[in-house]
Design brief:
About 50% of the residues lie in helices and about 0% in strands. With about 325 residues, the chain is mainly α. The protein folds into two domains: about 170 residues, no CATH class; about 60 residues, no CATH class. A two-stranded antiparallel ribbon has the order 1-2. A hairpin with a 2-residue loop joins β1 and β2. α6 packs across α8. The chain is elongated. The chain starts with about 25 loop residues before the first helix and ends with a helix.
Length: about 325
């Protein structure tokens, strides 16, 4: 039987040279201790960059006008969530990868109706209040066109909205129950009750924060906090921690694509970046199987520089 030919790109030659003792347990222990001590010392001097969670209560107390305006947009169907599409609703087809409508294929998995989920149902969970209950009944019994007329009239007056003595005041007389609904929702939010009403969960622990997060994202308050902390997409936000702390450097490749065209100007940026990263990951994964590319390390002989002491011997 003929001897099998040696393949330099695939086969590993048997080492016939000398050997040096190496205690990996000792080296690992030293590294663990050093890193542990440095971590403790640095945490004492610099602390944690994490900040308290942003809640609907905090938002409504810090900027009640923005909250009430957002609530009106939810009723009007003009908020970001209302027009998002899958997985929340059918208002749009969602992001596409070329001709592939990936979001539409996935479908509506987390159905959310902003009018009902963000405004009406939370108000219906409030303890009995005659004026509020009367206005909720008026809203529920009205036709869609009548509701739309009320909200349209209210939204037109929103630029003149004021916040006086804990109440939202809008100069309009043709908005039906909308003024009462928005004002009560704002008071509910300022008390913290809306945070709990928006959190859902099927078990004992209610840990699904999808609705409060979407409601927060529909306003301008959360976006303003992100900009101040350098966390927006144009500020390489995925790489940063709050308080201008450096974040995960290994995310630079993913974040990089959002800063250049066509990604930065595309409404499908998320799925385009995902597709690009999947393609690059596939190249990296199959690199050992690609003829020519797998031979580069052997041909450029960088390994001789890294292991120069070994090759000197």
């Amino acid at each position: 039987m003929s001897k099998k030919a040696f393949r330099p790109d695939v086969d590993a030659p048997t080492w016939r040279g000398g050997h040096s003792p190496y205690d990996i347990i000792k080296e690992g222990t030293i590294a663990l201790v050093v890193v542990g001590v440095l971590t403790v010392l640095l945490s004492v001097f610099f602390g944690s960059p994490d900040e308290a969670a942003v809640t609907v209560k905090k938002w409504a107390n810090a900027n009640p006008i923005d909250f009430a305006t957002t609530a009106a947009n939810e009723l009007n169907g003009t908020s970001l969530t209302a027009g998002y599409g899958p997985p929340y609703n059918h208002a749009a087809i969602g992001q596409k990868l070329g001709p592939l409508s990936l979001a539409k294929w996935a479908g509506v998995r987390i159905p959310i109706n902003p009018v009902s989920d963000f405004v009406i149902k939370p108000l219906e969970s409030m303890p009995s209040q005659p004026v509020l209950q009367q206005n909720l009944a008026m809203w529920s019994s009205a036709s869609s066109s009548t509701q739309s007329g009320w909200v349209t009239d209210y939204v037109k007056a929103v630029p003149k909205m004021t916040f006086v003595n804990g109440h939202v005041v809008v100069p309009t007389t043709n908005a039906g129950p909308v003024s009462v609904l928005v004002d009560n929702l704002t008071q509910m939010a300022r008390s913290g009750a809306l945070d709990q009403a928006l959190v859902t969960g099927g078990g004992y622990y209610t840990t699904d924060y999808t609705k409060p997060l979407l409601f927060l994202a529909d306003g301008t308050y959360l976006a303003g906090l992100a900009a101040n902390q350098h966390l927006t997409g144009t500020q390489w936000g995925m790489m940063n921690e709050t308080g201008q702390y450096p974040g995960q450097a290994w995310l630079w490749l993913y974040t990089f694509w959002y800063q250049i065209r066509p990604y930065s100007a595309s409404t499908n940026a998320d799925v385009l970046v995902w597709g690009t990263m999947m393609a690059l990951s596939a190249v990296l994964l199959f690199l050992p199987l690609i003829p020519g590319l797998r031979a580069i390390p052997r041909k450029v002989k960088v390994y001789r520089l890294i292991w120069r002491e070994h090759y000197q011997q």
